[in-house]
Amino acid sequence: MSQHAVWMTFRSMTADPSVKSQKLKPGTIKRIITYGKPYKSQITIFLITVVIEALLVVSTPLLLRELIDKGVLPKDAGLVTKLAFLVGLLAVVDAAFNIFGRWYSARIGEGLIYDLRSQVFAHIQRQSIAFFTRTQTGALISRINSDVMGAQQAFTGTLSGVVSNVVSLVLVVTTMLILSWQITVVSLLLLPVFLLPTKWVGKRIQALTRDAFNLNATMSSTMTERFNVSGALLVNLYGKPAKEEHFFRTRARKVADIGIQTAMLNRVFFVGITSVAAVATAFAYGIGGHLAINGSITVGTLLAITALLIRLYGPLTALSNVRIDVMTALVSFERVFEVLDLQPMIVDKPGAKVLSKKNLQIDFTDVAFSYPRADEISLASLESAAKPETVESGEVLRGISFTAPAGTLTAIVGPSGAGKTTMSALLPRLYDVTRGAITVDGEDIREFTVQSLRDSIGVVMQDAHLFHETIAENLRYAKEDATENEMIEACKAAQIWDLISSLPNGFKTMVGERGHRLSGGEKQRLAIARLLLKAPAIVILDEATAHLDSENESLVHEALKHALKGRTSIVIAHRLSTVMEADQILVLEKGLIIERGKHEELIAKSGLYSELFARQDITTN
């Protein structure tokens, strides 16, 4: 039995048997077939090569029989030479078909992986923000990687394995029965002896593999949390390095021990399988030898049967576990479909228009909002919550109505949890309103395409996110074709050009993960420069200066003057000093607008705004 055959048997026997009990959704197999249609001709050629390879499995032993019986024993040197040359030629042909089949297998497999990954990635990109607030990132990445890889096995490894093993088994058993039914029957009776140790080792390997996966996942999670900038800072300032090292070493040691046990079981499995095959071969030689002595079979037939015997047990063992192999591949497909079937909450309505106007008035009319339930936005298998949520969020915004005329600045203030950020998320349709409507220039924002609406809005958050790329690449995320002069002008207006020009690599400077190589104020000003490059009609600032010191706050304020000039702006602020000059201030509490007006008017009312203002100990002229 070849080492490759042993490995294929081992992989089959160690697959997770629990998939057998899983039921596929109706129509899953039909849907899977549609993914194979673009590769129909390639799959056909691939399966033809698999069948030809299976036919060659019995050809060599039969040629060996002819070589012994009609060449060696009669001492026909010419025939021996011809048959030996033919055996060598068949080996070359077999190798050629093997390479040819592998090329088609790779084309089909990698093509399917590309199709599925691209489709899943594009689909996930279209999901709402609500989806990402609940989904575990690692589980999502696993769908794109592990499950997609498992799914492609349905068309390559599993399909080819089943076809190859069935054809090989039929040909081998038929040929052996024709050559000697006695030896064939004895060989098949030995199959349980072959399968039992395989099953036992398989179960042991399954348990060890599961433990190793869990431990590796724990270590991976530990490294992910400790090896980013924020995690490293926390460990250095509060953590105990010795404790962290001990925690990691303990789990790494367990993984190493499991690796040793797995390696030994692999070796025991290989030795056991080859030993059982050797015992079966010995039986064949013993029985066949007596039959040859009695003249029932020839010596060539005996050698051909023993050669075929080596090719018998591999396919038999693999096919005994074929249901697990097939279900493993199909379940991987179903897990991918589970993500693809989750429809995005925010979609364009049929016939949606493109928003192209620049001077836009915003109107909120009796807007109410409740956060969607978990089953509306995510999948239980992509979350890692300890227990499901049973209580709905309730209305977090109620009866919100106001108008922000074009080119004006509207400030939204209030205590934490009042719903300020939620209000700002409704305008770019990160969420859709539960009741009421939001309009721009008199038209409901749901009448416009999501892309054109978001193209018209620029946002600067409290914690500006930067990718681990160069300054230029982060800026061009807003405008791909931005020239260097355009970036310089935007950076000057955002009060960040002096810093960038002083850096040795200028725009080519890497900002680090989440922009950690820059200070909070520098990140905010870079985010404002990015907004200026986008040149949106509407600007939303969500606590953009909340965590800045006085020097950085002053620079950011100067930058914001350029960002807000001539644009309809909504500013969410904790520091009331930043909104004193707003055209209108909305005071939000528990999802309701309880006060509105200019700064002086609200101070005169002696309401919540006045109270918040007094708490911050702000003095005005």
Describe this structure in words.
- By secondary structure, the protein is α/β, with parallel strands linked by helices.
- The chain has 24 helices and ten strands.
- It has helices at 3-13, 28-36, 40-72, 77-125, 129-134, 137-152, 154-179, 181-189, 191-226, 229-237, 241-294, 299-310, 313-320, 322-340, 374-377, 420-426, 450-455, 471-475, 484-493, 497-502, 520-534, 550-564, 599-605, 608-615; strands at residues 362-370, 395-404, 409-413, 435-440, 443-444, 457-460, 538-542, 568-572, 584-589, 592-597.
- The strands form two sheets. The protein has a six-stranded mixed sheet with strand order 6-7-8-3-9-10, with helices on both faces. The chain has a four-stranded antiparallel sheet with strand order 2-1-4-5, with helices on one face.
- A hairpin with a 2-residue loop joins strand 4 and strand 5.
- Helix 1 (3-13) crosses helix 11.
- The chain is elongated and about 120 Å long.
- It starts with a helix and ends in a 6-residue tail after the last helix.
- 32% of the residues are buried.
- The model is unreliable at 384-391 (pLDDT under 50).
